[in-house]
Amino acid sequence: xxxxxxxxxxxxxxxxxxxxxxxxxxxxxxxxxxxxxxxxxxxxxxxxxxxxxxxxxxxxxxxxxxxxxxxxxxxxxxxxxxxxxxxxxxxxxxxxxxxxxxxxxxxxxxxxxxxxxxxxxxxxxxxxxxxxxxxxxxxxxxxxxxxxxxxxxxxxxxxxxxxxxxxxxxxxxxxxxxxxxxxxxxxxxxxxxxxxxxxxxxxxxxxxxxxxxxxxxxxxxxxxxxxxxxxxxxxxxxxxxxxxxxxxxxxxxxxxxxxxxxxxx
Length: 265
Known about the structure:
Blueprint: E1 6-10, H1 15-20, E2 25-28, E3 35-37, E4 43-45, E5 55-58, H2 75-90, E6 93-101, H3 104-107, H4 115-135, E7 139-142, H5 156-165, E8 173-176, H6 177-183, H7 187-193, E9 197-202, H8 217-226, E10 233-235, H9 242-256, H10 258-263
Parallel strand pairs: 1-2, 1-10, 5-6, 6-7, 8-9, 9-10
Antiparallel strand pairs: 3-4
Helix pairs in contact: 2-4, 7-8
């Protein structure tokens, strides 16, 4: 297996700076970047997007108005949007690239919707995303998000339980350090479910760049790696000055990763 790579979640406007800082890959955002919305409300690939090396992962799949857990929202509209998004992503993706389904606002339970009904509707949306992504050679993966962003699936354990409940055990999940820390999910849980993890996101305290806070990055990566996850790691944080902060942040992640340390690279 190839050594893990270290990338950055970013829109195209900051891509050159991250590549210059030493990122192994870019994780492009989809909404407003890979695809853009026309004045009539339809979505299309961004014609201004520059050609770059193919990416292994993509983030920010759905706009907030795509109500994934609302039984009253037409599933056909979800299908149409996802079809457009995955077709655009596939042209920029490495074979088998992952697409992160986080999209907290899109999956938040609408007011007045029975939680069980909303949960079932979200399962239908995830199943639809899974199948449409596979048609384009992509893999949709589910990201737990802290309760400040959504009220549906906040922890890694909840994501695994949800997928198993609805017969989607083959759908893998994202281990996001930021959300795990805010939800205070024990690293033992991460280690136990690492075999279900397809991708990892990293940020430091208050979502600052890695190395600028005091969160236990090395312990997080140790739990993830010891549980069997050997894949890539993407930085997802708030940047004050990319030109200054990107290289030290990438160095901090590489230095904290026991897989990289053990390989001597």
